[in-house]
Each structure stands twice: as structure tokens, then as C-alpha cells.
Amino acid sequence: MNGTDTIHVALSGSLDDFDLDVAFDAPGHGLTALFGPSGCGKTTILRCIAGLNRLAGACRIEEDIWQDETRFTPTHKRAVGYVFQEASLFPHLSVRDNLLYSSGGRVKPAASNGVGFEEVVDLLDLDRLMQRGPQRLSGGERQRVAVGRALLSQPRILLMDEPLSALDRQSRDEILPFLERLHRSLAIPVFYVTHDMSEVERLADHLILLDAGRVVASGPLGVLQSDTTLPLALQRGAAVTLDAVVSDYDAAYGLTRFDVRGGSFLIPGSADMPTGSRQRLRIGASDVSLALEKPASTSILNVLPATISSSRALDDREIVMVLTLGHDSNGEQLLARITRRSWDLLELQDGRPVFAQIKSAALAPRRLPQ
Ligand SMILES: Nc1ncnc2c1ncn2[C@@H]1O[C@H](COP(=O)(O)OP(=O)(O)OP(=O)(O)O)[C@@H](O)[C@H]1O
User: Fold this and answer.
1) One domain, residues 48 and 80
2) Does residue 69 belong to any structural domain of this protein?
3) What CATH code is carried by the domain that includes residue 12?
């Protein structure tokens, strides 16, 4: 465990015929996604952290030890905010009273973690909903209130169990920007269970990959995405997500420049993004092609010098490789997926300098709160 890994969870035991045996550390800030197929144990881990299930092991949230060999803190003494698939609001209370339930109806100023009534209302844009009852809210609005209520209980950790899975596509798209703002604005760690990779790509800082009750891998999102020994990098929709900073806007062509470690990207249609703002870029492995020399005439705007750091044959037709941007080894890593025929024709090999070409249209920036 390094200095920033301040949450420690180790659990082992059986629930009927399901065996769970996991141990991982996670940062005490930002959003950690627990990702894996149905039945791999994601919800069970959250329930053990909340003290709702009891398996042997340990659970420590920074300096709060909730479980070890000798102690087990009961659920009601664990400062946990829990958001379920379906928002379970009190039907007879208004949004305001639902939010204030844990504070006995009193509006409290912001705590040191940034969570206060006004801050939560503002963050989740709940002001105009205050007097309504839960039955007069959309599914997405109900979930926003559920998140607000969980935050206002002043938790040490926010546990979210597939909070978007009961919502339709439109409600999901509405609530995702709130979740993006939330975990970056507040000093509360979030554990977020999902089996939807697009949610991981948009929200997660840290990732715990699970399968059949075991941890397959655990680490920063970008590190796991670009690890070709893991299944993430090998699947058809494989991608990396990069944190980028807006450095310039070309009004004549409507193009914004995004800087990442080791390179920069030009992307159209981003006039509202202020210079200096941070964005998250998703770059699909299949959207990256390679050239040995910098192409003199091409319609592709983003042609970045890079080096092939590693490669792996997916089958006898395709190769996936990790590219490190720039000329030194400090650049961000991209994935590229090309045919084995192209690999042979270009005589590619690990360590070879190349030019990575990425179509602007394939890049969809997501604003990160400052
Ligand atoms: N209280 C329980 N008693 C017995 N078995 C249980 C209990 N709770 C969960 N299980 C079993 O443990 C396994 C893991 O369940 P869990 O809900 O943690 O998985 P999950 O990864 O969250 O799945 P999903 O994505 O479908 O929600 C499943 O096989 C489930 O049937």
C-alpha cells in the first residue's frame, strides 16, 4: 500500500455456495469503481463495508477501523452513505425533508469535507425540486435526491450500487454529469459498483476488477486500461481515458486544443470549454492507426509521435499494442488495435517509434470540474 491508499478491505468467506476472497487498497479520495460480471461479488463487498454482511477480514476507512481480527463495528455505527439501484426516499416527505432527515430537519453549514446543505443542493441542482414529493420526481431526479440525502448523513465513504441501472438512457445521461461533478468536488471517497464500462470510463479514478469472488486487478483506471495482460485491453471496445487540459481555441475552424502528457489533440465543436479547464478524453483502441513517417497529406488532424511500448496478438488476425506518447517515456499511454497484416507490412515491433493517428470525430471530451 502506498501513502495515498488509505482504504483497506480484505474479506473472505462463503455465502451459501458463493466464495468471496478479496483484498485491496484504494485511495481515500475520488471514485473507485468495482467492476465485474453479474454475481462476481460487487454488492456483497459493499454490504460488508456497510456492515450489512459479515465475513472474516478487515475494513479500514482511513483512521476508522470498522473490522479487524478482534472488532466488528455494527452498521449503525459506520458512517456510510448508501445509494441503491432504486432511490428509496420517504414517500410522505418532501425533497427538502428527505434531504434533512439525517440532520433532524436542521440545515447545517458545510463540514470540512465540503458537504453542507447549500453545497449539496447546488451540486445536485435540487433547488427547484425542494417542495415536491418523491412521486412527482423523474427517476433521475429521485436518484439525485437519494445521493444528496446520503451525502448529508456526513459519511466517511459513499457506497453506490449500480445507481443508474434502473434509469432509462435519457435519465442516465442527465445524472452522469452530476456524478462527474460530485466525486471531484467533495472530499469523500466513493465506491461505485457497475457492470457498465462506459460509466467506469466517465467516472472512475481507480478500478477494482472482480471475477468470481476474486480481485483480478486493482489500480488507477488508466494503468489497468492499458495493461494488455488484463481482459479490459483485449475486448473489442477497449479504450483509454486521459485527463487533458484545454490549452487553446481556434475560432476560425472551431477546434479546441487539449494537452495531455506527451502530446496534444485538436477536437472540433468545443467553444464553451475555457482555457485551463480539465477534460477527460476517451480514445478507443480501434480509433488509433499507425504510420512510420509523419503523413504529409492527410485529413487526420491528430498525428502524434509515439513509441510502441508493448504488443500482444489477440488472435491470428489482430494485434493490440500500448503506445507511449512523445519522445521520452513519460507520455500518456494509448491502446491501438490493428491487423496482423498491417503489423507485418510496417515491420512493427516493440520499441519502434511511430506516428499515432486519431480521428478527431472519435474523441469526445468530458468536462472535469476544476
Ligand atoms: N445473503 C446471501 N446468501 C447467499 N448467497 C448470497 C447472498 N448474497 C449474495 N449471494 C450470492 O453471492 C454471489 C455474489 O452476489 P453479488 O450480489 O455480490 O454479486 P454482484 O457482482 O453484485 O452481481 P450483480 O452485478 O448481478 O448485482 C451470487 O452468487 C449471489 O447469489
Assistant:
1) yes
2) yes
3) 3.40.50.300
pLDDT of residue 308: 96
Assess whether 161 and 300 both reside in one domain: no
CATH number at 358 reads: 2.40.50.100
The mean pLDDT value for 49-59 works out to 96
Ligand 1 pocket check for 20: Cβ under 6 Å: no
CB 38 less than 6 A from any atom of ligand 1? yes
Q: Is 37 in the pocket of ligand 1 (CB under 6 A)?
A: no
Q: Report pLDDT for 362.
A: 66
CA of 39 to the centre of ligand 1 (A): 5
* Domain coverage including residue 137: 5-221
Compute, in angstroms, the gap from residue 91 CA to the centroid of ligand 1.
28
Assign 359 a pLDDT band (cuts: 50, 70, 90): confident
Higher pLDDT, 269 or 319: 319
- Which pTM was predicted? 0.91
| 39 Cβ below 6 A of ligand 1 | yes
In short, whether 280's Cβ falls inside 6 Å of ligand 1 is no
Share of the chain above pLDDT 70, in %: 95
Q: Would residue 302 count as lying in a domain?
A: yes
The domain tally of the chain equals 2
262 and 175 in one domain? no
Judgement on whether residues 190 and 243 belong to the same structural domain of the protein: no
Distance 84 CA to ligand 1 centre (A): 15
Residue 126's pLDDT band (cuts 50, 70, 90): very high
Q: How far is the CA of 55 from the centre of ligand 1 (A)?
A: 13
pLDDT band at 1 (very low <50, low <70, confident <90, very high): very low
Provide the pLDDT for residue 364: 61
Q: What is the 3-state secondary structure (H, E, C) of the chain?
A: CCCCEEEEEEEEEEECCEEEEEEEEEECCCEEEEECCCCCCHHHHHHHHCCCCCCEEEEEECCEEEECCCCECCHHHCCEEEECCCCCCCCCCCHHHHHCHHHCCCCCCCCCCCCCHHHHHHHCCCHHHCCCCHHHCCHHHHHHHHHHHHHHCCCCEEEEECCCCCCCHHHHHHHHHHHHHHHHHCCCCEEEEECCHHHHHHHCCEEEEEECCEEEEEEEHHHHHCCCCCHHHHCCCCEEEEEEEEEEEECCCCEEEEEECCEEEEEECCCCCCCCCEEEEEEEHHHEEEECCCCCCCCCCEEEEEEEEEEEECCCCEEEEEEEECCCCCCCEEEEEEEHHHHHHCCCCCCCEEEEEECHHHCCCEEECC
In a domain, 323, yes or no: yes
